Amino acid sequence: MRRNRDADWDAWPVADYLAENYRRLHPCDIGVIHHHAAVYRRYAPGSLARTLELGAGPNLYPLMLAGAASRRIDALEPSAAGIGYLRRQLDEGPDASWQPFYALCRSLDPALPESSTEALRPVRVMPGAVDDLVPGTYDLASMNFVAESVTEDYAEFTALCDAFVHAVRPGGRLLAAFMERMPSYRIGAGPLWPACPVDEAALRAVFAPRTTGLRIARVAKDLTLPEYGDTGILLLTAERPATATGAAAPQG
Ligand SMILES: C[S@@+](CC[C@H](N)C(=O)[O-])C[C@H]1O[C@@H](n2cnc3c(N)ncnc32)[C@H](O)[C@@H]1O
């Protein structure tokens, strides 16, 4: 069984990953963006002081979506390759291929500014990993294709999700996307990256005891992507309970 530390994340194949997943808007991206935009639309512009994108990698659209609601977006990422790409995108402006993603984000959330560069202005690239999270730091935490895509160990998957939940303050919002039932995978002809296949029941087992208002939606398998062995995408939203135990606050 390969755990998170067994993979060389610094060597994450950014160019191949972008080519396979994000150089054009795929049907599954449209589903994820609709889901996430509906969450961010609930917040007045600038009303979230600090939000997290855990394992941001080279994916800009979750950062763009946060751009209207959040005054500071921490893009936490351990991979030197991912950090390098993110920094270049923020310094020089997003690659043209991100434009259709941003146009969709903005059509769903008119509070976003005209330019994607402007939307990304609150982003701070933070070199680091899940173990660096300080509990209670964020108003909202977002995680896309990370916990299930970085280890074969379910205990480690659970610990990563637990740290994600606790990264937000009590009452804070959680927003996440998971590949459904994806086994360890390759990007291009590269090495095998560790993953643990999860379904809705597995997500409920991890998140239901730790959150309130748990909702899980599904996007159908995207046949325009390479065959990663998944059966679709699971989309999650929930809140960290306002009380420390996770139990409902006593009434009256
Ligand atoms: C499958 S990629 C997903 C990237 C991006 N979030 C997206 O939506 O495409 C997994 C990401 O998790 C990062 N990662 C690996 N181990 C991590 C850890 N322990 N804590 C946080 N991120 C990690 C990797 O460097 C990589 O960027």
Task: Record the SSE blueprint.
Layout: H1 14-21, H2 27-40, E1 51-54, H3 61-66, E2 73-77, H4 80-92, H5 99-108, H6 116-119, E3 123-127, E4 138-144, H7 154-167, E5 168-179, E6 185-186, E7 192-193, H8 200-207, E8 212-220, E9 232-239
Parallel strand pairs: 1-2, 1-4, 2-3, 4-5
Antiparallel strand pairs: 5-9, 6-7, 8-9
S-adenosylmethionine binds at residues 4, 9, 12, 54-57, 59, 77-79, 82, 129-130, 144-146, 149-150.
Strand order of the largest sheet: 3-2-1-4-5-9-8
Shape, please? Answer: globular
Q: Mind summarizing the main beta sheet? A: 7 strands, mixed
Which stretches are poorly predicted, pLDDT < 50 over at least 5 residues? Answer: 245-252
Tell me what portion of residues adopts beta-strand conformation.
Answer: 15-25%
Which structural class fits the helix and strand makeup? alpha/beta
Count of individual domains? 1
| Secondary-structure arrangement, i.e. CATH architecture | 3-Layer(aba) Sandwich
Q: Over all CA atoms, what is the radius of gyration?
A: 17 Å
What's the CATH H-level homologous superfamily? Vaccinia Virus protein VP39
- Give the SSE order as H and E letters: HHEHEHHHEEHEEEHEE
Task: Report the helical percentage.
Answer: 25-40%
The N- to C-terminal Cα distance equals 50 Å
How many E strands?
9
Query: Mean of the pLDDT scores?
Result: 96
The CATH class: Alpha Beta
Bound molecules: S-adenosylmethionine
